[in-house]
Amino acid sequence: MPADRIVSIALLTQREADRLAGTLQHCYPVSDGHSFEHLLAQLDQIEIEPSRDSVVIRVPAGPPSEDERG
Fold it and tell me: Is residue 5 part of a domain?
């Protein structure tokens, strides 16, 4: 795997970003105008089930996104 692969994406408050500033390699601020309610609602639908040696993640199928609809 390439060394620059994405390993995590997070939405942090400014306080959290300040606390982690010394450990974060990249941090991209998001303006207050962006709305994440739709994304957060979708993330809340994910089911995580621990198994013996791994974790099973189930993402319910939803309506196609604008990109998928073309």
Answer: no
With a CB cutoff of 8 Å and minimum separation 6, the contacts of 47 are 57, 58, 59, 60
Nearest to 46 by CA among 57, 32, 31: 57
If you search the block for the tokens 């189930």, which residue do you land on? 58
pLDDT in tens, 20-69: 888 888 888 877 766 777 878 888 888 888 888 888 888 877 666 666 65
In a domain, 1, yes or no: no
CA distance 17 to 26: 11
Q: How far apart are CA 23 and CA 40, in angstroms?
A: 25
Considering the entire predicted model, what is its pTM?
A: 0.41
Look at the chain and report how many structural domains it folds into.
Answer: 1
Instruction: Give the range of the structural domain holding residue 34, as residue numbers without chain letter.
Output: 14-62
